[in-house]
Amino acid sequence: CETFLEADKIINRENDARMKMEDIGKKSPYYEFCPNKKCLTDEQCIGAMTTYVFLKVRADKNNEHGEYFLMWLSDKLFKMHQKDKIEGENNIATLDAAYKSYLDKNIGNNKYWDALDNVKGLKDANLRHMNEFYKLLKHICKTIMHHKIKPTEYTGHLQNSTNSSNQYMLLYQNVSECDSYLHLLDNLKKTYEKFRTTINNGDSKLASSLQTLTTIENTDSYFVEGFKNFDFSDQKCQSKYDDSILENWKKDPNRRKKKDNEGNGDNNPQNLKLQSSVDQAPSPPAGVETSSNIPGNGVDRLESKDKVVCDTQSKENSKGSETTGICDI
Fold first, then answer.
1. Has residue 259 been placed in a domain?
2. Where is the composition biased (Polar residues) (predicted)?
3. What pLDDT is recorded for position 139?
4. Number of domains comprising the chain
5. Quick count: other Cβ atoms within 10 Å of Cβ 20?
C-alpha cells in the first residue's frame, strides 16, 4: 500500500511527495529504468516509476500483487487515455492496448509486461473497469495507512472506510455477472477484512467506525470459489461501466414493489438502510484527534457524496479472511 500511494504522490506532483517528478531521471534507482538512463518526458518518467513499483511489489512473483499492480498501473494509463481522448484518440478499450500505446515505447530495457504471465489474462480487462478497481484499492490502502500513521484519529478511518464501502457497492453492481471481475473484488474484500479483523481484536472504538464491504442489497459474502484463469471474452464481462447504476437501482419501481410486499422493513434485518456518507459519520469519542492531515488522505476523501453506504455492521464474514500480504507492499 505504501509503495502505491507514495508513487501516486510523485506522479501526481503532490506537495508532500518525497521527490519531484522531474527528479526521476536524475536519482537512483529510478533513472536506471529510463530509456538509455534518461527520462526526458512525463511518459518516460511514469514508465520508469512503473518499473520501479513492479519490482518493489514483486508483481511477477505473487498473483495477488500482480493483480493489484495492474490496478495501480491502469490508473496511470487511464489518465493518459483521457488526455488523448480530448485530443481525438478514443479507440483504446483494454489494459493491454493502453500499455502498448502509452508506455511500451517509454520504458527502458527492464520490460516487465511479458513477465506478468502469472496474471496474463488480466491484461485483457477493460481499462475503465480496472481504473475503478484501483479506486477501491486506493481507499483500502488509505484506510490501512491512516491507521499506521494516526491510529487514534477515528474520523479519518470512517471517511476512508466509507469511501471503500461506496466504491465496493458501485463496482459490484457493475461487474456482478463476470467471474473474472468478481474474483478481483473478492481479493480486495479479503484484504480489507484482514485489516478489520486485526482492528476488531485490538481496538473496539476504531472497529465501530469501520464500514463492512457489502453489496447494496446488504450481501456480505465472497462470490467466486476455485477461480483459475481470467477470461473477459464473455459478453457478461463487456458491459459498459455505469456511474449512475446505484441511483437507478434505488429508483427501480419493481424493486420498490417487492420491498412493499415484504412488509414492514424495520422488522426485517436484511433490509438496507440507505444513508449518505456524510449523514452516517458519527461523532468521534471525546478527546480524540480529528485532523485528517496524513499523506494521501485529502483529494479523494468523501469524493462520492452521492453514493450510498450501508450502516456499520458488526457481523463477520462467515467465510473468514485470507492472508493477502498487501499490507506489506
1. no
2. 269-280, 320-329
3. 97
4. 2
5. 12
166-189 pLDDT, tens digit each:
999 999 999 999 999 999 999 999
In this predicted model, what pLDDT tens digit does every residue of 248-283 receive, in sequence order?
777 776 664 554 454 444 443 333 333 333 333 333
Q: What is the C-alpha end-to-end distance of the chain, expressed in Å? A: 5
Q: Could you list the residue range(s) of the whole structural domain that residue 296 is in?
A: 128-254+277-328
C-alpha cell, 42 = 512525463
Judge if 89 and 164 occupy the same domain: no
Q: Specify whether 171 is located in the same domain as 300.
A: yes
What pLDDT is attached to residue 98? 95
Model pLDDT for residues 130-164, shown as the tens digit of each residue: 999 999 999 999 999 988 888 878 888 889 999 99
